[in-house]
Amino acid sequence: MTTDNIADPKPTGKLLLRVVPMPADVNRNGNIFGGWVMSQMDIAGGILANQRARSRVATVSVQTINFIRPINVGDIVCVFGEIVRIGRTSITVYLEVYVSPVLPPPLDENESFLVASSAFTFVAIDEHGRPHPVDR
Ligand SMILES: CC(C)(COP(=O)(O)OP(=O)(O)OC[C@H]1O[C@@H](n2cnc3c(N)ncnc32)[C@H](O)[C@@H]1OP(=O)(O)O)[C@@H](O)C(=O)NCCC(=O)NCCS
Question: I need a labelling partner for 45 at 20 to 30 A (CA). Which of 13, 14, 85, 101 fits?
Fold first, then answer.
């Protein structure tokens, strides 16, 4: 899976994180700050990579993040992801962020929109912070 499928209305992978942004997370336009979104993606991808590596992981790289629609305070933000590559010590997770808007109330409570996508690469690290091989 690549970041090319941003028009796909169905989430890719499994639900990793569900969170509601607060007023402290807004930018000067009144929408949620892109860095906050990136942070949630990093946390969500880290959960999956951590489970797969069965060890601590460190984020080593982030592909282009496509911010597709704005997020507002109070929206329900869901991060989905799946592992798309396992290297010797690295794990790449493709992530999609979906939002269920709070205002205006959605007609369908399952209504949600893709707002961002990217792929994050994590490295399995030992207790000294050094890369270690991931079991295949
Ligand atoms: C992650 C870290 C431990 C890797 O150490 P390193 O000495 O660069 O390790 P290596 O060169 O052996 O690379 C380890 C793996 O990362 C991959 N990698 C390194 N740089 C990469 C990059 N820019 N993009 C994608 N993968 C990368 C390598 O290909 C290798 O993968 P593989 O073993 O599956 O083939 C080290 O760079 C680090 O601590 N970085 C800071 C991490 C951090 O603090 N992240 C939080 C955000 S600031």
Answer: 101
Tell me which H or E stretch contains 90: strand 90-100
Q: Is residue 39 within 8 Å of 33, Cβ to Cβ?
A: no
Cis peptide before 104 (omega within 30 of 0): yes
Judged by average pLDDT, the poorest of 21-25, 86-90, 103-107 is 103-107
List, for residues 91-100, the tens digit of each pLDDT value.
999 999 999 8
Q: What are 114's strand-pairing partners?
A: 98
Measured from the CA of 86, which atom of ligand 1 is nearest?
34
- Retrieve residue 6's tokens: 């941003």
Options 3.60.20.10, 3.90.1010.10, 3.50.90.10, 3.10.129.10; which CATH number does 10-125 get? 3.10.129.10
Backbone φ, ψ for residue 76 (5° rounding): -90, 115
CA-proximal residue: ligand 1, atom 19 (nearest): 60
